[in-house]
Amino acid sequence: MSAPPAPPLVLASTSPQRRAILEQLGLPFEVVAPRYEEHGDDPLEHAVGKARSVECAPEQPVLGVDTVVVCDGLVLGKPESPAEAERMLETLAGRTHEVVSGLCLRTLGWEEARTETTRVEFRPLTPRDLAAYVASGEWEGRAGGYAIQERGAALVRRVEGDFLNVVGLPVALLVELLAERFPGTYGFG
Prior knowledge:
The structure is a single chain. This protein is α/β, with parallel strands linked by helices. It is 30% helix and 25% strand. The protein has one domain (9-181): Maf protein (Alpha-Beta Complex), CATH 3.90.950.10. Strands 1, 2, 3, 4, 5, 6 and 7 form a seven-stranded mixed sheet that branches. Helix 1 (16-25) links the parallel strand 1 (9-11) and strand 2 (29-31). Helix 3 (82-92) packs across helix 4 (127-136). It is elongated, with a radius of gyration of 17 Å.
């Protein structure tokens, strides 16, 4: 007799990057837009708020994630204009910054909330580099104004830590939590 299928994770996010990563991992999931309004810069607080804003079955895990970029203590969210995107990229050029994600995995009976940090070093960027990247429009809706999994890869010199955290989902942390809380159910632990 085979084990019952794993309940799908409820992804409290509309991020196409997070959906793509869960698909890449082969995890069953469904998407529910969170009913949570972000205030402030704390990615852990936002992840918990997103996860708590979504209803689910009693043993069905809900996943909330939020990501920010931090450079020398300055939090860089999602730029609202091409000029703001260019300023953010100028700030990151030739420097190392941190991509910090808050992740909350919860059911009705328990909740785990943790952070993951990945260090990213940008190469020096010329005005032409900045103009070309901003013109691509790829900065829209991206913390720090770049997408490392797309053209933004050309801006990066080095990554220390979980690469997929920079894309939008700290996979190593998620797998660790799934292995702890659901040993074998999702293929981990």
